[in-house]
């Protein structure tokens, strides 16, 4: 009688079927720490602009694991030796590389959990899981931390052409419907190779790499930094900052147990204990958004006004330009609002604020290396015959100013 | 200087660009009642099985409006007269046809908001909006209620081959990645026509209709009634029922303001006031799921145990068969659990329960009519040359039994 | 220095990248016998209806090889033992299963090469290649002929759910743009298993199989037997028949060397020599269509009139019905044409002709077997709970009558 | 009784359904001149590299017409006035813009029909059709020739962002499976507008235009100038040149009537008569390829050797570099071949030859204009904030050298 596998296949609208390679990975996926990612959207509030963009960090992580399996297959076919333990460690490391992301992806880091980065929290999760799984994640952690001596394994996890990017660009393009951001992860993986333990791209993949860089740039400006999404993200951060501010003054705020913990407790890298990690593992988009829904009716005018903006999708106006906004211009808007709402300057700054956004399309410090037919390695920025990739190494900076529509 | 439109284009990964036909519809979409649909998933907890299935009722409604525009264009090209007012009413009616759906789509209707159907609530919303928009929705409401004298307009909104189905089958198939459920909405719309004010399908569309019926049937059994999703849905309903039960006993339950209202207030069709509607309009998936997250730690064993099942995706076991389960078999499971957890029978029934699921692939009462080249109208079940569609008119019934894994 | 593979990757718009598993298969693909398939369209003259349908037998064969690799991978994961030699033989057998197809796929078989089937010619090609490749195709030939003792290997090549169908339905659906014919080859393969050396489908694949049968049926009636394609195919056959008739009377016909051979030489199964095979291997769509272009201006009225119909896509009219056309009705059309063109009855029958088309959606003689969870095997026609697949076992027959538009 | 349209819908795997706007256009499509395009592949011999790339000029022209309908709809929605006559002229002009392309697209122009460009032949076809259709193509011809006073109409037909490119890049990307070349024609069209009768792109479309330019560049180097395709194209041209050379010496060559005409008659722009046009209209890929198949066995060694290379896909070797090859290097190869095959230098040059390929990604002479929110027009090369588009205005030149493998 044939053995039919237990559920080890996951449907993905992008890749078709994704198979889970073994039972250790199956168990990691089943763990509540990982299941939390089902409740964290990959793109934060971008769904206010692109209504299809509701995909989660869970799905992205699973997708990464799938692409990593492809990469291992391709490299082995090219006679790059990768042991089964190393392969497995790669799958685990990429699966968990973002597990430390807070609710709404980046918003938390800029408001209430800001003494510690999401990478550091990811590492804490990995270590906690390693204990539970009797040390079976040790190699994955080494690779993730860049402490394993085969560089390309780390580069598959984290570099300018890592598996993370290959999945998220494709996935975000797919679910937003911005087809122009679509990249050929398959082709890019097919062009991978390893020279002196470094991850390289074969020469004939050069146009694909160029295209990848341009597609990523397009996704940044058209999607990730889309002005409506940008406003929403900043309003969200301001809501959380305001809530934290009120909490520090012992104002009562309806919120879930986990969210209350993070609002009413000062968090630093030092005091981020096991208990903190456990509570963090119970905090997701649902805590945040349901709190905001309650706060719509809070007596604090700042908090409730900002909250209503998100829930009713009635956001601030935004101006974007290449020069910083003058203090004078900002100050004028601020004062107008102060007198209109009868609030003080500090409160007005929750509604009138300016900041910059920047994006560097390509970074020459850790170059993508092209492997020529003649056996030489070149930075893509130099190997590319014409497309002036060097120009793309200069970060583009833009400045934005948000303020309420009624003081336009 | 050319006039460039305000944001009137929405990206859809399925259809590309969707344009909003006019400013009335733009304003309806902007209304908080409609914006709430952004926070109600189309497929409830199916994302526990199909991780891509996070699309919302908002997106579905917008997609329907898009297909409706196509249908109007096709019918007009075939010289079916549709006035601009009628077209507009169609867009509004289809946009709002599901606005009364509660959080997690169907779960609420079977637990805490069960004296009134979602269709009735949809109608209440439409009437409330009609007041706000000075009667501009009157014709849409007439069509939605089936009170307008041109039958095909109603049939486009609600029939066995309505625009609703054309969008949701395509959309659910797309986001789950179950490509086999994909239907050709374009082709089906291209085959539509109107005879004696009835919506018909031209003869050459017969295979497409067959295929549509089979695809829908496949989606039911493979996706909508997928056993894991089925368990999750039932556990969710039981959580809400238990919560309501506790609330009626005045047990304190952490919950959002809106959810508390529906837990602690008996709702009937009669007392579903304007105030109730307003509170309903603030209730969405986030209220439910964040409450469940809190209830994981509630002192009531039944509530907390069920809640953990959903959050950690560690669900009940399910058996499915074609015959009802015997009371004896169920009773035995129940008693085993009672003694294991030291709970009474009524409590045990939250974990051990049986019910039936059924699906009728095709209903001859309101047939899909095929219009032959010779000018005759036939029920598709008769027009189809061979595929025994009559067999599909018999509802398929299956029985399921759920119980905790530990008493397997 | 890393070894980068020679061209062993083929781009496929459907599957992405297809890799060629080894150098023997690479060499078979490079062989002129196989390269000929680049010049034989998969769907004959269907591109007169579906302009995207220009894909070739070459591409289909390569696609089959790709799916076969997937099937082998899936079965091995389920612990079905398949040796490397067997796997390789499967790839070769599926690659060459259609190599005996003549120009325009089926047209030749019904006109000038009609003493021998395309399967018999495929076998001749395989044997010729086996000689060239020192016996390395022996096992592939055994499997292809059904003479190897593991039945499932043959069933993967030829059965109601073989790899051939899994590719061509998907491919034809893709290139015609008839999305409704799309099937999930991936899912069907994922559901394959082997019991007692028989190919079976696991129970949860039952809806996918149903869907596959319905999709195939739809493709037959909507695409393969599309009335315009049907007329074109029949006109093509008539052109070749007329040409052969004229050739037998020693009328001179411009044609390529290879085509002349088949026109002026009577071909039987017995005299289909090595030389005949060699000439056959040089005959493709280009010989046929370029001859027809010349024949547009031939002095034989029948030949030139038919030829113009194809080239200018100005075809005969066709009527289709469920009953045979009466001789009286056909005769009347025929006589009208005779007097109009001043031709005799036999000549008129090249323009006025009736025949039947039939399609059996499912054949119970060699059933698709479903493997239930309880370990039983059932014919899908019985396992399917409701969809009356039995009804689909009855062949559907339709009758058509073609005649020139001017005698309508 | 409803009127159902005659066949006016064409299936396209890319766009879904394409509808034919009116009966004049229907009749033009039916004309043998246009039907010939069914037998001319869009991408010449690229199918030797990308086996899916068998799409035809017919399909491309139809696709263009479809996109043009979209463009007209978008512009009208933005209040750009386009009369029905102008719209119709646009459809006709784009439908016929490439009708003068010879067999295998570009090969003929560089060998046997080289006194006249394909654009000139297109114009001849349009004028001939205009006579047949009683002057109804007059406006289309004016626009096509750039003689109509509304510049944007011409720019839709021919510019750096014309409808032609929007279709062929998308189509070629689709059928080759090189997904990275995919562009969002829909988005680009949605961003079109008209200022002072000039076609412009709105500012928010800037990233899409960049992406379009990069995608086109990628398609050139990865697909259109793919080295195997390049060799095949050059061998094809050499075959035709050799044939013409032999024909001029009155050597007998098997060929179709039309091809013979072009081989044995010197063609110049001056003597390209109506009769020549008629014969040209009967010359397509089938004439060329079937002749080449015959020439495989021609007694002329050069002709037969080259012919076999194409048919058996056993091509010359190619080297590509950024500097010209030295005469010395080429001469050495040449001499080696001369002595090997015992042929003279001129004959050897059919096998050993060098040339350059070049591509200019963007041309500032006729810039793509970006229309800023503040109402200014800028060349995209200047409007693009960072991507150094100026770098892309410099043509990239590469040199290639072909020679037989045996003299490597």
TrEMBL record, chains A, B, C, D:
One of its GO terms (molecular function) is dGTPase activity. Signal peptide: none annotated. GO terms for biological process: dGTP catabolic process. SUPFAM superfamilies: HD-domain/PDEase-like. It holds the Pfam family HD_assoc_2. SMART domains: HDc. Residues 57-169 form the HD domain. This is HD domain-containing protein.
């Amino acid at each position: 009688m044939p053995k039919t596998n237990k559920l080890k296949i996951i449907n993905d609208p992008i890749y078709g079927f994704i198979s889970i390679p073994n039972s250790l990975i199956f168990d990691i996926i089943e763990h509540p720490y990982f299941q939390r990612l089902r409740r964290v959207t990959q793109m934060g509030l971008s769904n206010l602009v692109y209504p299809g963009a509701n995909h989660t960090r869970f799905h992205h992580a699973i997708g990464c694991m799938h692409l990593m399996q492809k990469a291992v297959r391709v490299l082995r076919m090219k006679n790059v030796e990768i042991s089964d333990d190393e392969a497995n460690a790669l799958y685990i490391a990429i699966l968990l590389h973002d597990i430390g992301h807070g609710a709404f992806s980046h918003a938390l880091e800029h408001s209430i959990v800001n003494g510690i980065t999401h990478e550091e929290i990811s590492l804490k999760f990995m270590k906690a899981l390693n204990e539970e799984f009797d040390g079976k994640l040790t190699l994955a952690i080494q690779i993730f931390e860049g402490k394993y001596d085969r560089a390309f394994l780390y580069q598959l996890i984290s570099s300018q052409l890592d598996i993370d990017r290959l999945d998220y660009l494709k996935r975000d393009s797919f679910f937003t419907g911005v087809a122009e951001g679509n990249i050929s992860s398959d082709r890019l993986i097919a062009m991978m190779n390893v020279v002196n333990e470094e991850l390289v791209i074969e020469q004939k993949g050069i146009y694909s790499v160029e295209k990848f860089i341009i597609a990523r740039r397009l996704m940044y400006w058209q999607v990730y930094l889309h002005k409506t999404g940008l406003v929403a993200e900043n309003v969200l951060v301001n809501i959380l900052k305001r809530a934290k501010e009120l909490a520090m003054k012992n104002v009562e705020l309806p919120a879930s147990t986990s969210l209350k913990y993070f609002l009413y407790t000062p968090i630093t890298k030092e005091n981020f204990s096991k208990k903190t990690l456990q509570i963090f593992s119970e905090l997701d988009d649902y805590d945040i958004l349901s709190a905001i829904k309650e706060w719509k009716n809070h007596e604090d005018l700042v908090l409730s006004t900002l909250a209503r903006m998100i829930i009713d999708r009635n956001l601030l106006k935004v101006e974007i330009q290449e020069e910083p906004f003058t203090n004078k211009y900002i100050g004028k808007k601020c004062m107008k609002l102060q007198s209109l709402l009868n609030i003080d300057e500090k409160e007005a700054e929750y509604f009138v604020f300016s900041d910059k956004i920047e994006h560097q399309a390509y970074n020459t410090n850790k170059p993508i290396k092209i492997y020529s037919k003649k056996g030489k390695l070149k930075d893509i920025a130099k190997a590319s015959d014409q497309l002036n990739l060097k120009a793309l190494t200069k970060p583009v900076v833009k400045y934005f100013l948000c303020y309420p529509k009624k003081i336009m």
